[in-house]
Structures are given as C-alpha cells and as structure tokens.
Amino acid sequence: MDRRKFLVGAGLGIMAATAPISLSAMGAATKKTTKSGRMTLKFLPFELKLRHAFNLAKYSRTSTPGVQVKIEYEGVVGYGEASMPPYLGESIETVTKFLSKVDLSQFNDPFKIEEILAYVDAIEPENRAAKASVDIALHDLVGKLIGQPWYKIWGLSLDKIPQSSFTIGIDTPEVVKQKIKEAEDYKVIKIKLGLDNDKEMIDIIRKCTDRPICVDANRGWKTKEQAMQIIEYLADKNCLFIEQPMMEECLDDTAWIRERSPIPIIADEVFHRLPDIVKLKDYYDGINIKLMKSTGMSEAYKMITLARAFGMKIMCGCMTETSCAIAAAAQLSPLIDWADLDGNVLIADDIFSGVKVIDGKVMPSDKPGIGVTPIKGKYPEF
Ligand code: MG
Prior knowledge:
By secondary structure, the protein is of the alpha/beta class.
C-alpha cells in the first residue's frame, strides 16, 4: 500500500470507529469530556519492518502488514493489534474494513467480555487477526480497570512459564551462524525446514549450537516417507517436537507419521479455532495456539482447557508482531508446554515495551492488563 492510501485508510478508520462515540459523548454532555461511559475503538494501519528477510518453505518477506488498535473507556486505554502474515488471507484492507463495522458504543460495561466478543465474532466469519486485535485491547482495558495483569486474574504463576524458542529461517550457513549469535537470550532454537536441504540445515545448526531445537516444516514435506526420514534424523539431535509436517489435508499421512515418530507432532497451519481441536485430536499430538488465529486471548484460554482434556500438548506461537500481542500471549504461557514468542524480536522497531526475556523465558511485566507501555516517539499518534 502506498503512503497516501495508507493515510487515507487510517483517517477513515478512525472516523468510522469514532463516529458513534461522538454521538454518545454528546448525549453525556454533563460528564467530563474524557468519560463517556461508553467504549470507543480506534485503529491505524501500521506496517512492521523485519530485521531480516523471513524465508519459509512457501515464501519470503521483509515486512508484515499490521493494524494497531485502541479501546478507550472512562479515560483508560487498552492496546491491541492485528498482524497479518500473507498465508492467513487477511490484509490491511480486510482488517480495517472489519474494524469499521465494530461498534463498541452499544456496550457500557467492558467487563462483559464474553458478550462483547460474541458480538465481534458474529459480525463476519473468519477475520481472525482483526477479531484478535479487539480481544487483546479489551483484555488490556479490563485488566487495567481491575488493576492486575491477566496471569494474576487467571490465577497463574510465572514460575510455570516454559522457555521460549527463537526462530531461525532457512538461509546460508553464514547468516544462520549470525542469527544464532543474535538468539543468545533464548535457550531453544526453532528451525524452519521443508525444503530440499533439510539435513544440511540441521547439520549447520548442530555445528553452531547444542541448544535443544524444535522443527517447523510449515507443510513443506511432500510425502510421509520423506517426513519420517527427516524426523528420524532429528530424533537423536535433541529435537523437542515437529510442527506441521505436511499439508493440512494430509490427515491420514500425518497420523501415520505420528504413530511412528518418537517426538510429538504439532498442528499449526491446519489449526485455527476452538472446534478444530476435536477434529485434530486423533491426528496430532498437540496444537500451536496463536492469538492471531484464535481470535485472541479469550478463545486461546478455552483452547488450552479443551486440548488438555484430550491429553494434548500445547505450544503458543506468534506472528511477526510487536510486544503488544507477545505480552498478551505471555499472560497465558504459564499454562503451556512450549512457548514460541519471538515475534517482537523479529521486527526492526518495536513500539511497545512490556516483555523481557529472562533465563530464556518470555516474561510479562507486572503492569495491569497485558502489561505493555507504548514507547514515546515510536508508538504512532492516532
Ligand atoms: Mg508453524
């Protein structure tokens, strides 16, 4: 999108989102101007530049389209965001179009999270990242109104947060070595396989580090036999699990792999919403929850509960996104087996602070809500 279109889109977005609010504010003329008693939603398209080109089995990219979101209520602001990697089918256009339809001015109680999110979910099918941006901002707002971070509201302990992996894309040995150096803070390395040079990549990684690895094939392996060959090669190389070995539709082949694999097989691209867990439980050992797929924190929490009931493993991943969505996911991470929350490190210029990597774990701050603070001079005005 060129800059002019971007600004026009941004302006329209704010106008569309604020129009109902001005009306309700007019009706409440006796109240202070900052306190309308209604929620207002604003949004702004915001492209995230990547530190390195990201090379996956199916494509390569240097930036990710995103949309920043704010929900304001009684002078308190909740922050959220949508991040839209190309394979999920959302874009600046679809997200801003969706958010223009969200009218939160009809709700005067942000604590009715379930009711508000059910309304948002029913506006249009799909649009999962757009829905997640509202969900995250609403959770941030409500946490701030309560005065506590969400991990505390949920009764979770930060001691249970697992170490997070750091993802390294397919690249030349020199670049891979450099990236591993940059990933010093992380104790687990995630590698993206699914091309013809998988064994070569594994050998390069193992020459550079003895840290545990996890492998994401991103649907790249063409046959179950090819997948098993690499998995067997990986099994004695301290690999924790395999993500999405084959295409979404290859369920029987995946079950065949799962039966033979000494390490867990995790569903990612094939897994989006809560009901998918029931469909996938007989084919995969676990699920990769990402807020941009799950429509946010509320459904992610339900996913964890349901997947545990089926005895499934749970990882929590992310898109390339700012510390906003990463901090939101970190609130849930005491409940999961593996974290893969490095999206904020993969972008060139984060606009939020609020998560820290301590002993390889992505830790949320003690601040209320999702625990983030916009960085002055970097967070866009809107
Ligand atoms: Mg994946």
